[in-house]
């Protein structure tokens, strides 16, 4: 559910623009408001999971998420919707690392754990890929509010299942780091604000410069603070493990490319080509099916050969699909877009369980919560940056900016494949 809401709204962006009188920068905030807070609070969400137990944290996060989804569905202005999306992100940030920690604690055997993580990742990866498809169907049949209100049903089922059957991992009693958390919020909010608003207000405008300077200063302070605090929100020694660092880079690039391109393709198909929301959603169907298949296969492959090969192969397939879109051009028929998105979905789906397994295998079990939170933070930051950067590139010349964005994504994915191939070990 938390993964679904990262992409389900993309197909509805043109509709939201018309119904709520929202501009491009506000539509970027509808997407990034969720992923930004999701990223900013996942580290403390992982710490909370380790401190109070994963089950308690999961239930708390799910409750916040469902309440925020109701607020999204009732929003009448862009500001109300963006604020509710912020709250959704907070609930997701608490819920997601707790869910992975529950999986990690439930399986001691590395092989079984890899398969379980593969299924966990398959659910999340399939939801991200299926978001545009489900969004298109709901938008065409029930209206844009249903994209958020459907979470009430899903969340209620999740709460019932968790309270009845989920085991509670032991708490490790880790301390909190409010200064570090506040600094992360400043860094992510300042940088995202600068990237989104720079293309609209101008890069030399005072608000944009203030945001970017605050982000840079906050990043420097954060590193210094985390090195000396007794209970750091992000233990920097985790990055001493090459596989952990490499998987974090791969996760960032993966979502940078994926979220950014889905955001642009949704606008391109409806605003530039004139396709309906339903057709736009169905364009993403082959990609969604490919991602689901790859998630399931990726977990098994990772369990058998280790995470390196799926990470490298998946990134290359992802890049290959985007390169096909570049070569196809803006006048490509829909079937050609379908063909190009299949390797995108398959590649992205293959990478998710592999990089998740690489992170969990590189740290002790007691640090699974904060480690998984760091990986997912890197992924969500990547998604937020992708939407911000690509949205800025298309603000003046949409088609030219779209092509530039695709090329940037291809180059980033190729670089991430090299990083994964060098620093992630085979089993």
UniProtKB/TrEMBL annotation:
UniProt GO molecular function: transmembrane transporter activity
CDD domains linked: MFS_MMR_MDR_like
Gene3D superfamilies the record matches: MFS general substrate transporter like domains, Multidrug resistance protein D
Pfam families documented for this protein: MFS_1
Major site of localization recorded for this protein: membrane
Transmembrane segments: 27-45, 57-80, 119-142, 148-167, 179-196, 202-223, 244-265, 277-298, 310-329, 335-360, 406-424
Start and end residues of each Major facilitator superfamily (MFS) profile domain: 1-427
Subcellular location: Cell membrane
Keywords, ordered alphabetically: Membrane, Transmembrane, Transmembrane helix, Transport
Database matches in InterPro entries: MFS, MFS_dom, MFS_trans_sf
Membrane topology, from the record: Multi-pass membrane protein
GO cellular component: plasma membrane
PANTHER family: MAJOR FACILITATOR SUPERFAMILY MULTIDRUG TRANSPORTER MFSC
UniProt-recorded name of the protein: MFS transporter
The organism of origin for this protein: Nocardia nova
């Amino acid at each position: 559910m938390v993964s679904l809401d990262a992409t389900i709204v993309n197909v509805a962006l043109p509709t939201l623009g018309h119904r709520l009188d929202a501009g491009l920068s506000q539509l970027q905030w509808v997407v990034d408001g969720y992923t930004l807070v999701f990223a900013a609070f996942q580290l403390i969400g992982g710490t909370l999971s380790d401190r109070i137990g994963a089950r308690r944290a999961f239930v708390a996060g799910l409750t916040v998420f469902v309440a925020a989804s109701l607020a999204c569905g009732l929003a009448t202005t862009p500001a109300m919707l963006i604020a509710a999306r912020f709250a959704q992100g907070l609930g997701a940030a608490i819920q997601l690392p707790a869910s992975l920690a529950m999986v990690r604690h439930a399986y001691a055997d590395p092989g079984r754990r890899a398969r379980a993580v593969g299924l966990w990742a398959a659910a999340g990866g399939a939801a991200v890929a299926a978001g545009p498809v489900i969004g298109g169907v709901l938008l065409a049949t029930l209206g844009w509010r249903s994209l958020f209100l459907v979470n009430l049903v899903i969340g209620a089922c999740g709460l019932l299942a968790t309270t009845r059957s989920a085991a509670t991992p032991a708490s490790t009693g880790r301390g909190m780091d409010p200064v570090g958390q506040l600094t992360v919020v400043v860094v992510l909010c300042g940088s995202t604000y600068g990237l989104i608003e720079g293309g609209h207000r101008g890069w030399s405008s005072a608000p944009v410069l203030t945001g970017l300077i605050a982000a840079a200063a906050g990043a420097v302070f954060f590193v210094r603070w985390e090195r000396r605090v007794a209970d750091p929100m992000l233990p920097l020694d985790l990055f001493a493990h090459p596989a952990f660092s490499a998987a974090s880079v791969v996760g960032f690039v993966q979502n940078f490319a994926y979220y950014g391109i889905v955001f642009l393709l949704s606008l391109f198909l409806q605003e530039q080509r004139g396709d309906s929301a339903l057709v736009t959603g169905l364009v993403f169907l082959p990609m969604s099916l490919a991602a689901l298949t790859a998630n399931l296969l990726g977990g098994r492959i990772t369990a058998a050969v280790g995470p390196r090969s799926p990470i490298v192969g998946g990134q290359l397939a992802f890049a290959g699909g985007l390169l096909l879109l570049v070569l196809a051009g803006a006048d490509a028929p829909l079937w050609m877009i379908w063909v190009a998105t299949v390797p995108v979905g398959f590649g992205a789906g293959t990478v998710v369980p592999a990089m998740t397994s690489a992170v969990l295998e590189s740290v002790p079990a007691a640090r699974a919560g904060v480690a998984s939170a760091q990986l997912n933070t890197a992924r969500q930051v990547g998604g937020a940056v992708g939407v911000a950067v690509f949205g800025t590139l298309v603000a003046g010349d949409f088609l030219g900016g779209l092509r530039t964005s695709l090329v940037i994504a291809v180059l980033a994915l190729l670089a991430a494949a090299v990083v994964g191939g060098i620093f992630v070990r085979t089993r």
